[in-house]
Write a structure and sequence with these properties.
Chain lengths: 515, 229
């Protein structure tokens, strides 16, 4: 049985069907005029061989091509793109099945931040009353490490609402190089969670190593096809409308191996895309369609996710503003557009502009978490622990976010208004009005224990004090203390034998290895 | 046999089952005798009233209280158990009177004139009954004259007054004044409760205590009764 996620009944739509159709037409127009600039030779060749109009713009040190993609190629690609995508998992019960037409939402972590935020709770003494002490959370940013990645995968394994794991933090240990980053990133994550693992790739040369690692875990190539425990994110398009050399190569090679891949674009309204909603939508859709078309030209039937990470620019710095209301609007729009194509949508919510957990973080992330979830994207990434517009990951925040998503999932439960429910409550009402105290309280009890009543906020303190952070921190440590199911010793030994570049300290069965 | 009935009665108090059709905390109890049926059975089997009250009803409520303190039970559980015990006490009442056995105390309770809010008062009533008090619930929007009449004629040990609104709480002061004028003030302990009132207000109008909730009301009444003994 796959994970259930949450099925959104009557998903929220911002756009009319006509508006979606108009955006589609505008994107098709963009793909043929002005088209895309490709800094990737393979992409230019593939489009050229399949009937696109390709012109050399520059043939110097940085060669590039202008690709004008005809509508027919795009429509053929949309036709061959699978409408259902399966993302496997080490524990088959954590499999995710996404159907482009079904608004079933899976909540997923991400993205890859450079900064990891530690927290501690120093004690402060009140100046005017020395006997009064309080503990105040303090947050300390530092560069992320492979140990942090293990810890985050470990906690995410135990977060009830988290359906899949995208690597959260960029590993920047001294012994991590461009050549060994991918294998260590994949192993650290896969060894600490039995949920689906998705990541970008730093170095194309490492693709076969990480794919072979996955094959060793599941038992072979056929098994990996049936249970793709890993998938890839490729931001092959740099907005506006440019195929990047290295990430486009990664997309092409992942597609050749037939593994699931996210074709993602992240334009910024105001700088790398028009500020007007119609403009950013038409452009991001053109960019994603270009990537999907390329994926299907490389390998028809490659499972892809429509990856939309649109964001508005901040007016004070012109940096990303994930906390802006428009960012949620764009994401909801993209979910609708992806559903128009019946392709599962990789969407974004929960990232905030502020740098540390607190009131602003809660308001910004809860707003987008609720709004975007209501639109029914299949794969909602970035939803746990991200702060400072994707620059910072905080495990404590991820634990807090799990509580948010429990509330959101509960909110989306179907209403219980069946014939049986009506008959039961009519009987109840008739009984209760005849009693002297006229209270329904005793009828709460069956619901109270069956999970039909929402749970109170889990980090509510005693009395009037706000102990949310301290209680969430306690919970985080409880989750870290719970064991995770590591890859078994024999497979681990094989992986360390066959896959080069793995850090010995990641082998939990060897002396010095971290559990 | 009587031991079995007592044990079963106590267990059903813990489960909060008033009648056979009630669900308990545990599965599969629907259809089995609950507090009302078991109390009747106990009387038919001539189980002593003292055993029914102390070993089954009070002992069961004691366990419920412990579970509530341990956060294993919530207020609906507490109320369900209290309501079941209240129903048992209603069945036992004529037998107690015939045997000249007194309840823990007699309480008259009302929401004062002009106020129709009664959730808090009803919870207090249920909990007090569950704790073994005999409660006469006068209802809502009760005129001062009616309250005086009940105090005069029925001579309750306690008078509980409830008000939610700042506009109606003044009726509480009028009642304590009227009790004084009628020479009844020292015949009854007056306790007040409700969102509008406070400890300070209780002192201001000369009430004997302010009860923050039903559990506090039980403790307060028990404390007064202990002093009396």
């Amino acid at each position: 049985m796959p994970r259930e996620g949450i099925l959104v009944q009557n998903p929220y739509k911002r756009l009319t069907d006509e508006q979606v159709s108009r955006i589609h037409q505008a994107s098709i127009e963009i793909l043929s005029d002005p088209g895309l600039i490709s800094f990737n030779r393979q992409a230019a060749d593939i489009f050229n061989a399949n009937g696109a109009k390709v012109e050399v713009i520059s043939s110097g040190e940085s060669p590039c091509w202008l690709i004008k993609i005809p509508e027919k190629l795009v429509l053929q690609a949309l036709d061959s793109t699978p409408k259902t995508v399966k993302l496997g998992a080490r524990n088959p019960e954590n499999t995710l099945i996404m159907n482009g037409e079904e608004p079933r939402v899976y909540f997923v972590s991400g993205s890859e931040t450079n900064i990891w935020l530690d927290v501690d709770f120093p004690t402060y003494v009140k100046k005017s009353e020395r006997s009064t002490e309080i503990q105040v959370p303090e947050f300390h940013p530092r560069r992320g490490t492979v140990d942090d990645l293990c810890k985050s995968a470990h906690v995410c394994e135990h977060l009830e609402t988290l359906d899949g794991y995208i690597r959260t933090v960029n590993i920047q240990d001294k012994d991590i190089t461009e050549d060994n980053k991918d294998v260590n990133k994949f192993f650290a994550s896969l060894n600490n969670t039995t949920k689906h693992f998705m990541s970008g790739l730093t170095n194309l040369k490492q693709l076969d190593n990480v794919v072979n690692m996955a094959k060793l875990i599941v038992g072979g190539e056929k098994e990996l096809k049936e249970n793709p425990i890993i998938s890839f994110i490729t931001c092959l398009v740099k907005s506006p409308l440019q195929f990047i050399e290295d990430t486009t190569d990664i997309l092409i090679e992942v597609c050749r191996r037939g593994l699931p891949v996210v074709v993602s674009s992240s334009p910024q309204a105001g700088t790398t895309a028009p500020i007007k909603e119609a403009g950013i939508l038409a452009q991001i859709n053109a960019e994603v369609l270009a990537g999907i078309t390329l994926s299907q030209l490389v390998n028809k039937g490659t499972p892809v996710l429509y990856g939309s990470v649109p964001v508005r620019a901040r007016m004070d710095t012109l940096s990303d503003s994930y906390g802006s209301v428009e960012t949620s609007q764009y994401n909801i729009d993209c979910t609708q557009i992806a559903r128009f194509y019946k392709i599962p949508n990789y969407s974004t919510a929960g990232v905030c502009d502020t740098k540390t957990p607190g009131q602003q973080a809660s308001i910004e992330r809860l707003f987008s978490d609720i709004a975007v979830t209501l639109s029914g994207p299949q794969y909602l990434h970035c939803a746990y622990g991200l702060l400072d517009c994707n620059a910072v990951f905080c495990l404590l925040q991820a634990v807090l976010d799990d509580a948010h998503f429990k509330m959101i999932k509960f909110f989306l439960n179907s209403p219980g208004i069946s014939e049986g429910d009506i008959n039961e409550v009519l009987k109840q009402i008739r009984e209760v009005v005849e009693t002297p105290q006229k209270m329904y309280v005793r009828h709460i009890r069956p619901l109270m224990r069956s999970g039909e009543l929402s749970a109170p906020y889990p980090f509510e303190g005693e009395g009037e004090g706000d102990n949310v952070f301290a209680l969430a921190y306690e919970r985080m440590n409880q989750l870290l203390a719970q064991p995770v199911e590591h890859i078994d010793p024999a497979t681990t030994a094989k992986i360390f034998q066959e896959i080069p570049g793995l850090l010995p300290r990641l082998n939990v069965y060897e002396k010095g290895g971290k559990q | 046999m009587s031991e079995e009935i007592i044990a079963s009665l106590k267990e059903n108090v813990i489960q909060g089952r008033k009648t056979a059709e009630d669900e308990g905390i545990e599965e599969g109890m629907v259809g089995t005798p609950a507090v009302v049926e078991l109390t009747q059975q106990a009387l038919e089997k001539k189980v002593s009233l003292e055993a029914i009250i102390t070993q089954a009803l009070t002992a069961g409520m004691h366990v419920v209280g412990e579970k509530f303190t341990a956060k294993e039970y919530f207020i609906p559980d507490m109320l369900a158990s209290a309501e079941a015990v209240g129903a048992a006490m209603d069945i036992l009442k004529p037998h107690l009177e015939a045997s000249h056995i007194e309840t823990k105390g007699r309480v008259a309770i009302a929401t004062v004139k002009g106020d129709i809010h009664d959730i808090g008062k009803n919870i207090v009533t249920t909990l007090l009954k569950g704790a073994g008090y005999e409660v006469n619930d006068l209802g809502v929007d009760v005129p001062t004259e009616k309250i005086l009449e009940v105090v005069r004629k029925e001579k309750p040990d306690f008078l509980g007054l409830s008000a939610l609104l700042t506009t109606t709480m003044v009726a509480m002061g009028e009642i304590t004044e009227a009790l004084k004028e009628e020479g009844l003030r020292d015949k009854v302990k007056v306790l007040i409760g409700g969102a509008a009132v406070s400890d300070e207000y209780a002192q201001e109008i000369g009430a004997d205590a302010y009860c923050i909730d039903g559990f506090h009301a039980i403790k307060t009444l028990d404390a007064f009764q202990e002093v009396k003994v």
